[in-house]
Write a structure and sequence with these properties.
Blueprint: H1 23-36, E1 48-49, H2 55-64, H3 71-81, H4 95-104, E2 105-106, E3 111-117, E4 123-128, E5 134-141, E6 148-151, E7 155-156, E8 174-175, H5 178-191, E9 206-211, H6 221-232, E10 244-248, H7 252-261, E11 265-269, H8 275-281, H9 290-298, E12 309-315, H10 323-332, E13 338-344, H11 358-370, H12 395-409
Parallel strand pairs: 1-2, 6-9, 9-10, 10-11, 11-12, 12-13
Antiparallel strand pairs: 3-4, 4-5, 5-6, 7-8
Helix pairs in contact: 2-3, 5-6, 7-9, 10-11
The protein binds S-adenosyl-L-homocysteine and iron/sulfur cluster (SF4).
Iron/sulfur cluster (SF4) binds at residues 158, 160-162, 165, 167-168, 215-216, 249, 269.
Length: 410
């Protein structure tokens, strides 16, 4: 079986030199950005969604309607600490002002279209956003503790086409906005009645965030960063940066920004130890090869023995799972504070890889452990509801595809 199954357009540039662009190039880039942009904060009925705005932005629109800036703190508390979705719930605000706010603003939430709970308690949500687009969010309980992680999507679809990934078979439809990213976490909290937010770092059931759902979060960096700043704000959801992990396929320049600006934990989807193989299975490697990705990991500010970089390594039978691969892996990462998550390949309809055998996974893990790295083999979660890693793809996309096929047949 060839590892390369789909030719992949690698995005041409992350940060073009704006000054050097011609007018036509500018227009093309702006048009493309508009195409993938999330819906604006102003809804069809003219009201503005307050979720996803910074404190400064909220203050500005309150001042614009003649209100005092201190209201921001009150409203912020109701939205992000109490989980209010209606201005009438804001009892510390006088009725006439509640009404004035309700006439002009909304507190938006993505709508759950389906909610499935797996045999192992994993819960998958399909959320619909204001423009009808949909994305999946998964709550993964921790088996040992009474808490778990919310796996959040950052894009509808993905521009990258890693050959083993189900999401990668769906072209990028658009980026999710900050409101939609933070909204997934808030709507998952609604489902578990987990409001109000705990103060400080007190754990709850929904106590960590992993940006490992649909999409490449670093190709939607601005919206992801804005959402994570809201999540980390101490007067609201108040999750510490230590409780947030962003997974990337290796967008090097933005790994640096993420480390400097957000300081959240980093997971890197490595999956191969040689450029020729990684070029094929993670095509972004042609732009940012292994050596550059690892150099970015070495300079990642949040990397320390207390907060290690996680390397994700998918176990594909006969492709990347030999003992020589394991030895090369530990050689490559020997000077990085790291742990290695071995992920057995999760099959999806139409995929032609097979997961490595249990024996091979164990042999691989042993070599990595002997070199001093924690090397857990991830137990697939929520397989019965297609919620495991790489299986996230919207139901509606499947329905649309089936619909298209029917039309072609007719
Ligand atoms: N785009 C980001 C984050 C989303 S993918 C990234 O690639 O890191 C989250 C993780 O799931 C990545 O490590 C990805 O490589 C892995 N993954 C994708 N498809 C998978 C599959 N079929 N089986 C197991 N893991 C998969
Ligand atoms: Fe995109 Fe990550 Fe899937 Fe690759 S593994 S196609 S980067 S979502």
């Amino acid at each position: 079986m060839s590892a390369l199954r789909r030719p992949t357009p690698v995005p041409s540039s992350d940060a073009p030199d704006v000054a050097a662009l011609t007018e036509t190039e500018r227009a093309r880039i702006l048009a493309k950005a508009a195409l993938f942009a999330p819906p604006a904060a102003v809804c069809e009925d003219g009201r503005t969604d307050l979720v996803g705005l910074t404190r400064e932005e909220i203050t500005q629109i309150l001042v614009d309607i003649g209100e005092k800036p201190f209201r921001t703190k009150q409203i912020w508390h109701w939205i992000y600490h109490q989980g209010a979705t209606d201005f009438r719930q804001m009892t510390s605000i006088a009725k006439p002002l509640q009404e004035k706010l309700a006439e002009r603003f909304v507190i938006g939430r993505p709508q759950p279209v389906t909610v499935q709970t797996s045999e192992d308690e994993t819960r998958k949500f399909l959320f619909r956003f204001r423009d009808g687009q949909e994305a999946e969010t998964v709550y993964i309980p921790d088996r040992r503790e009474d808490r778990g992680a919310v796996c959040i999507s950052s894009q509808v679809g993905c521009t990258l086409s890693c050959t083993f990934c189900h999401t990668g078979t769906q072209k990028l439809v658009r980026n999710l906005g900050a409101a939609e990213i933070v909204g997934q976490f808030m709507a998952a909290r609604d489902s578990y009645n987990e409001w109000p937010s705990p103060k400080g770092d007190t754990p709850r059931l929904l106590s960590t965030i992993v940006l490992m759902g649909m999409g490449e979060p670093l190709y939607n960096y601005e919206n992801v960063a804005k959402a994570m700043r809201i999540v980390m704000d101490g007067e609201g959801i108040a999750l510490s940066r230590r409780r947030i992990t962003l997974s990337t396929s290796g967008v090097v320049p933005l790994m640096d920004r993420c480390g400097d600006e957000l300081g959240i934990n980093l997971a890197v989807s490595l999956h191969a130890v040689r450029d020729d193989l990684r070029d094929q299975i993670v095509p972004l490697n042609r732009k940012y090869p292994i050596a550059e990705v690892l150099a970015a990991c070495r300079r990642y500010p949040a990397a320390s023995n207390a907060r290690r970089i996680t390397f994700e390594y998918i176990m594909l039978r006969g492709i990347n799972d030999s003992e020589a691969d394991a030895r090369e892996l530990v050689r490559l990462i020997r000077d990085i504070p790291a742990k290695v998550n071995l992920i057995p390949f999760n099959p999806w309809p139409g995929s032609d890889y097979r997961p490595s055998t249990r024996d091979q996974q164990n042999r691989f893990a042993q070599i990595v452990m002997d070199a001093g790295f924690a090397s857990p083999i991830r137990t697939p979660r929520g397989r019965d509801i297609l919620a495991a890693c790489g299986q996230l793809k919207t139901v509606s996309e499947r329905l649309r595809a089936a619909e298209r096929e029917k039309q072609t047949d007719a």
